[in-house]
Fold this protein.
Amino acid sequence: MTRRYFTQRSLFTFALTALLLAAGAFAYAAPVPIPSLSIGVGTATKPNDVTTTIQIFLLLTVLTLAPGLLIMTTSFTRISVVLSFLRTAMGTQSAPSNQIILSLSMFLTFFIMTPVWQQINKDAYQPWKAQQITQEQAFDRAVTPVRNFMLSQTREKDLSLFVSLSKLPRPKNSADIPTLTIIPAFMISELRTAFQIGFLIYIPFIVVDMVVASVLMSMGMMMLPPVMISLPFKILLFVLVDGWGLVISSLVKSFG
């Protein structure tokens, strides 16, 4: 008991001495400048102050909606839905995980959308950066490639549906269709295409499940779950036919 008491007392004394030495060293050290940040709400005295505040508010709003814009106006929706169908059809539950599916969908989206973004950089950003065009002209030039991409992947039936729902006059050409009308039509078309691809993915795996279930029933093994037996065969079939290469190449070519 005495030995334990002296050990605890020695540790306490060592810790207190180290703390005092550190405090003394900090007191004699050169002061380190720490930047200050203050945010406040005051009364605007000039119109420019109000304009700057509105610009900051709009910028924060755009940054908040950026993930949604990435999903709504790019190939991300189709890719993520198809990969989710693939995982469900194989019956692997959480393999690959949601993080892997989302990451793969994101990088495939970057790969597919690169020509569109290169055109935006060439026609809109670089001239605006060189002060050759105004901000409004840069915005119009940046929206055009994205509109062309969405229109190339949107069915006429879906586009006419949202044009009729918006109660707009019949457009003469694609340039007369508002962007806010094209976006939901594009998303509906992407979901339809993704479900069609998902149906084709399901067929071979359903065949494997049916064959395994029939064999187990013929052998009288009624209590053994067919999914437990069919899962290794589905994984083997998927690997032998280079399933990932087929699915990814089909997805990329579907945007051609």
In short: The chain has nine helices and no strands.
